[in-house]
């Protein structure tokens, strides 16, 4: 549109004409900043103007809101320099001009006075100075607006003064024009806003408001502000759309009635003209239909978008417009002739595409085909609908009814418009051949564009429509190609019903093309498709069965995928371990879900097996425990490509839906609610055109030929019913190894349904096992010393036990095998057991075995006795039957029981092996025995404690204690009972007094013996029990007596007062020879002495030792030698207090030999003695010596490790020192007898 702001010119027209060209050219050269109201951003605009001669008719009348014809500025031109001429003519003309402007309320004017040198020269005598004329004009007309009078000097000359004058004039004109624009547009916008706010009042008309706001858009377009102009049309579009939506919700407007009239014209969009005046006039009169309004509105938007160089937005908006118009017509319930909307959409699509092609070159169109492909596809769909509606694509041609409908549709198209091109109009008037060719052209164009932009799904959908076109034309081969491509998209995206429909079309094409194998494959898919009716499924199933009967005599076999016929759902082994020995029976049960709607008779069901001997069964006992256990039952997941057919729903991510709510910010009321998908990026992602072969729901399941092998599972004559069917195979198990099921094949006539891969992997194992002999107790635990029953279990494995075979057991004195005459053997066969023949000799026990077949179990029981070890006797080494040295069993502590365990091993020679079999049994000693030496002065007693640590109650009888080396020694029993009950977890103590005649031996070798049996057993059940032990240094060497003396003047000790502790150490016997050599020392008088250390300590904290608590004494080594020590102690409490504990230790000098086996509980304190041996000899007593163990070194541990000999302390053996005051007590009185009693009297 070439509209420009109108500027009127009054005064000297000849003067203006001479300056018009320069003025029109120079005015838009410089941009001006336009500052608008309401805080809108300023813009730089180039101003143009349409200069017209001033006429009073051009001035706006009252109520006229047209901005296009509104004069924004009025100019009066004059070059008068003569005073008389000014007064006589110019002034009066200016006054009439201003009065007219004032009458019509126009205040935008300017007076331009042009000055030239030629005029001055001609009228020098009557010419006043120019300034005087300008001043008079300003004083007459511009009293308060002196800037409204502008002087233009020498406008036609090329001089700096002239250029400066032009620049000043142009700047003034631009400024006045912008001021006028701002003022008048602001007033217009206010009026328009007021009109829009009245839209809820009765009588308001959208068409009237449309014309007003479009006027504003025209002005913006006139000012080349296309963005602002587009905003006005977008606002009108949104306002109208909102009214239509409100109408659909029940909120009607009166003015919408004109748009609800039946549609009479559907000629499509018209975008070649800037303004479609015909439709605009219809809108202005209120006679436009909905399609007319939308067409005109979009044409204006299209024009502005083209001006803004945004042609691709046109295509986007056009597609939205076409879809929205169809919905708006339904909302408004507008009556439209059938097919009229298809015509309107089709012509509109082509019109938009032609308009875009007209403003873009081919390179731009190819690069931006993603914006236009939607229109191409939409036009293709509508053309298809039109062709089907009017009978233009049928093979028989249109009927009379179709022709009448075509005539009605052509009537609504109106006259042919040459600017739209032949393809928009002539196609609807051509016969079927032309419309078919045009549809094919459009479809191919849309497909190519979709492929170019990577939208394969859309391309395939268009291809499916094109396939239906080819099917009607009879070109089945090309139709199948497009259908297969479309099927890929449907299957990969899980569209169930489109998959079924497309497969039916493919089956029709394949049948007509004679592709038997493909047709049978597709028919099988359709026969198992639950989306079809039962009759349809039976029809396709019958197609397959008919082929079976027809092709039974042919030699060619057809291989199809089993997934289209049946579904492997479950596989189960019998036995469930899926592991058998060679030659055993193993059954494999398959569960097939038949997808056919009727029962099918199958000649053979076969499964191919892959045999692997390297990873096969075990060949010995060592591998038997490592044999892998295969699952006995395998469930196959539906949808897996190996176990099921292509189902209608693809295995994809599930929808993740979430609720969204829109609430009012003011009162939190619910405005709207909806559902949003949170994983749209996964659900709507595009799949590649080449789907992987293992994708579920593949279009045409891959067929793999059945690989014939030596190992096969076969079942003949199987009848499959619809649903689950069970088929049982007998698996081969002759050769040990691993058998893996690879393929499954069902043969029906000359058709093989093959499952190429069974996944997850299914396999069973056939093993060849070596014989295994095990021994285990019948009851836990096995008790040593008592006859116990053990069970021998023989797994024959692959070995067949023959008559005469026997087991040779090596006899041992620690675990003899007790003879039995009624030992029977039982086998895994249900037959009765047989009696075993057992023959024993000194070295071997022979057990004859009954004949037993391979892979059977033979069990028998023997009674054994484990001898409890008595002590330290170590007999000579024995040898087993195989020549190996027998190792004596050792007892050890078991972590799970308090009983001591003994491992007994036996060597067995078996007839099936040249090597001996070693078996072990663990026995537990039911008793724990310990002894102790007790002293009472010179009298000695031996105590033996027998503790029952088992869970069995025993009876002890004939308890004895003997000494093996000294016959003169008498052990007098103090035990009164001949039999004693020894309950579980209890102990029995036995006591003997040692009596001697001459001297008590220093070492005693004792043997404790008793007979024991479980409670309530016969006398014959008693078994012997022996316990040997040795007592050393049993003679009492020293006696220690202590007395506590009260303080002077007191009869009793008192707490807190010092008391005297007198310790008397007496030598009782003469020294022995060994003692003389080890401990004695000869002093200067020739008397042999030994050094003793005493220590007084009170662990109960009853006494406080004052002064030194320990010391060293030199004790003569003669009988009755005595040494007394005085120590001060203080009782801390009152009462009968036990005496402090007194220890006596041997002090061994550094020259003494170290004990061979020192007490492991001894400890060395580095700070116990820091003195050398000499210092200790000189200093008899010291308080720094502490006894903490059996052997104490006097010195640091580092010195000991370096080999330096240090003095040490050694405790006496039990019984060598007798403490007479060990259990004595002394009475201690409180410190004072004062008693304070507080009494309160009121």
TrEMBL record:
Keyword Transport: yes
Cleaved signal peptide residues: none
Keyword line: Golgi apparatus, Transport
Keyword Membrane: no
Stretches for region Disordered: 616-673, 1180-1203
Location of the TRAPPC10/Trs130 C-terminal domain: 1002-1229
GO biological process: early endosome to Golgi transport; intra-Golgi vesicle-mediated transport
Ranges of biased composition (kind: Low complexity): 641-654, 1184-1197
Pfam families given in the database record: Ig_TRAPPC10, TRAPPC10, TRAPPC10_1st
InterPro entries recorded: Ig_TRAPPC10 (IPR056917), TPR-like_helical_dom_sf (IPR011990), TRAPPC10/Trs130 (IPR045126), TRAPPC10/Trs130_C (IPR022233), TRAPPC10/Trs130_N (IPR056913)
TRAPPC10 Ig-like domain residues: 774-923
Name of protein: Trafficking protein particle complex subunit 10
Originating organism: Lates calcarifer (Barramundi)
């Amino acid at each position: 549109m070439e509209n420009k702001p109108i500027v009127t010119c009054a005064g000297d027209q000849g003067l203006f004409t001479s300056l018009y060209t320069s003025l029109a050219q120079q005015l838009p050269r410089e941009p001006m900043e336009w500052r608008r109201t309401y805080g809108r951003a300023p813009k730089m605009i180039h101003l143009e103007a349409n200069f017209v001669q001033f006429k009073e008719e051009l001035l706006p009348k009252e109520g006229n809101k047209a901005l296009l014809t509104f004069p924004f500025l009025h100019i009066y031109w004059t070059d008068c320099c003569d005073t008389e001429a000014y007064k006589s003519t110019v002034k009066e003309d200016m006054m009439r001009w201003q009065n007219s402007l004032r009458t019509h309320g126009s205040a935008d004017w300017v007076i331009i006075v042009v000055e030239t040198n030629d005029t001055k020269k001609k009228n020098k005598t009557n010419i006043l100075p120019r300034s005087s004329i300008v001043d008079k004009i300003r004083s007459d007309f511009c009293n308060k607006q002196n800037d409204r009078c502008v002087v233009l000097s020498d406008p036609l000359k090329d001089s700096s003064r002239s250029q400066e004058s032009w620049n000043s004039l142009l700047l003034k004109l631009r400024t006045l024009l912008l001021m006028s624009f701002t003022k008048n547009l602001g007033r217009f916008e206010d009026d328009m806003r007021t009109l829009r706010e009245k839209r809820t009042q009765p009588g308001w008309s959208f068409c009237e408001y449309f014309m007003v706001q479009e006027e504003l858009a025209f002005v913006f377009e006139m000012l080349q502000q296309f963005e602002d102009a587009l905003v006005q049309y977008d606002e009108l579009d949104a306002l109208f759309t909102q009214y239509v939506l409100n109408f659909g919700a029940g909120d009607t407007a009166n003015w919408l009635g004109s748009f609800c009239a039946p549609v009479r014209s559907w000629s499509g969009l018209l975008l070649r003209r800037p303004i479609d005046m015909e439709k605009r006039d219809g809108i202005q009169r209120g006679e436009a239909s909905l399609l007319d309004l939308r067409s005109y509105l979009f044409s204006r938007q299209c024009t502005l978008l083209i001006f803004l160089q945004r042609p691709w937005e046109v295509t986007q908006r056009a597609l939205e417009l076409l879809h929205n118009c169809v919905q708006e017509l339904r909302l408004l319930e507008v009556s439209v002739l059938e097919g009229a909307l298809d015509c309107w959409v089709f012509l509109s699509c082509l019109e938009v595409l032609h308009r875009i092609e007209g403003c873009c070159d081919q390179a731009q169109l190819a690069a931006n085909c993603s914006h236009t492909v939607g229109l191409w596809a939409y036009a293709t769909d509508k053309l298809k609908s039109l062709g089907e509606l009017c009978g233009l694509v049928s093979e028989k041609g249109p009927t009379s009814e179709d022709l009448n409908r075509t005539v009605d549709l052509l009537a609504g198209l109106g006259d042919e418009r040459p600017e739209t091109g032949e393809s928009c109009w002539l196609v609807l008037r051509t016969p079927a051949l032309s419309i078919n060719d045009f549809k094919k052209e459009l479809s191919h164009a849309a497909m190519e564009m979709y492929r170019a932009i990577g939208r394969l799904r859309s391309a395939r959908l268009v291809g499916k429509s094109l396939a239906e076109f080819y099917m009607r034309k009879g070109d089945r081969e090309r139709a199948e190609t497009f259908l297969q491509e479309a099927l890929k998209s449907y299957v990969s995206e899980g569209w169930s019903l489109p998959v079924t429909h497309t497969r039916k079309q493919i089956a029709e094409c394949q049948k007509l093309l004679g592709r038997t194998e493909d047709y049978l494959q597709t028919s099988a898919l359709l026969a198992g498709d639950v989306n079809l009716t039962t009759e349809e499924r039976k029809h396709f199933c019958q197609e397959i069965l008919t082929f079976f009967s027809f092709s039974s005599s042919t030699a060619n076999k057809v291989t199809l995928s089993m997934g289209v016929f049946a579904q492997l759902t479950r596989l189960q082994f019998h036995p469930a371990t899926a592991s058998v020995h060679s030659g055993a029976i193993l059954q494999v049960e398959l569960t097939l879900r038949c997808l056919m709607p009727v029962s099918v008779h199958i000649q053979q069901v076969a499964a191919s097996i892959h045999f692997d001997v390297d990873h096969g069964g075990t060949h010995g006992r060592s591998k038997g425990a490592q044999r892998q256990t295969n699952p006995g039952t395998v469930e196959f997941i539906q949808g897996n490509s190996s176990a099921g057919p292509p189902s209608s729903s693809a295995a994809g991510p599930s929808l993740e839906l979430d609720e969204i709510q829109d609430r009012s910010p003011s009162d939190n009321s619910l405005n709207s609610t909806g559902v949003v998908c949170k994983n749209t990026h996964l659900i709507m992602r595009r799949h590649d055109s080449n789907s992987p072969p293992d994708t579920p729901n593949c279009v045409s399941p891959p067929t793999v030929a059945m690989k014939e092998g030596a190992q096969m599972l076969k079942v003949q004559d199987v009848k499959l019913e619809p649903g689950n069917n069970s088929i049982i195979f007998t698996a081969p198990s002759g050769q040990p190894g691993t058998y893996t099921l690879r393929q499954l094949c069902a043969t029906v006539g000359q058709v093989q349904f093959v499952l190429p891969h069974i996944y997850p992997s299914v396999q069973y194992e056939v093993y060849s096992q070596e014989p295994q002999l095990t021994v285990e107790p019948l009851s836990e635990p096995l008790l040593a010393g008592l006859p116990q029953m053990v069970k021998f279990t023989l797994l024959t494995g692959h070995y067949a036990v023959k008559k005469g075979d026997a087991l040779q057991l090596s006899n041992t004195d620690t675990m003899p095998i007790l003879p039995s005459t009624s030992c029977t053997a039982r086998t895994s066969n249900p037959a009765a057991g047989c009696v075993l023949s057992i023959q024993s000799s000194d070295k071997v026990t022979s057990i004859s075995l009954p004949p037993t077949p391979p892979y059977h179990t033979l069990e028998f029981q023997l009674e054994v006795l484990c001898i409890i070890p008595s002590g330290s006797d170590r007999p000579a080494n024995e040898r087993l039957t195989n020549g190996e040295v027998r190792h004596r069993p050792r007892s050890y502590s078991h972590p799970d029981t308090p009983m001591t365990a003994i491992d007994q091993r036996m060597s067995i020679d078996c007839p099936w092996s040249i090597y001996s079999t070693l078996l072990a049994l663990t026995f537990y000693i039911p008793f724990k025995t310990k002894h102790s030496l007790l002293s009472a002065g010179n009298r000695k007693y031996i105590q033996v404690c027998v503790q029952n640590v088992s869970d069995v109650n025993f009876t002890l009888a004939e308890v004895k204690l003997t000494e093996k080396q000294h016959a003169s020694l008498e052990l007098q029993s103090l035990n009164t009972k001949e039999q004693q009950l020894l309950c579980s977890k209890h102990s029995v103590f036995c006591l003997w007094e040692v009596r001697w005649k001459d001297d008590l031996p220093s070492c005693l070798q004792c043997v404790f013996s008793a007979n024991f049996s479980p409670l309530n057993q016969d006398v014959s059940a008693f078994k012997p029990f022996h316990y040997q032990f040795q007592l050393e240094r049993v003679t009492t060497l020293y006696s220690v007596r202590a007395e506590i003396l009260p303080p002077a003047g007191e009869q009793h000790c008192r707490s807190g007062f010092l008391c005297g502790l007198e310790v008397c150490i007496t030598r009782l016997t003469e020294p022995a020879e060994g003692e003389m050599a080890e401990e004695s020392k000869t002093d200067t008088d020739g008397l042999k002495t030994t050094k003793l250390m005493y220590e007084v300590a009170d662990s109960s904290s009853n006494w406080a030792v004052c002064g030194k608590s320990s010391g060293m004494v030199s004790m003569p080594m003669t009988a009755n030698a005595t040494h007394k020590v005085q120590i001060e102690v203080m009782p801390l409490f009152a009462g009968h207090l036990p005496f402090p504990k007194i220890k006596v230790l041997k002090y061994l000098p550094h020259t003494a030999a170290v004990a061979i086996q020192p007490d492991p509980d001894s400890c060395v304190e580095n700070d116990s003695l820091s003195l050398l041996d000499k210092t200790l000899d000189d200093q008899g007593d010291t308080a720094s010596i502490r006894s903490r163990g059996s052997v104490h070194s006097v010195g640091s541990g580092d010195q000991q490790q370096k080999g330096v000999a240090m003095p040490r302390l050694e405790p006496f053996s039990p019984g060598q020192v007798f403490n007479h005051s060990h259990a004595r007590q002394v009475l201690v009185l409180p410190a004072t007898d004062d008693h304070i009693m507080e009494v309160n009297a009121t």
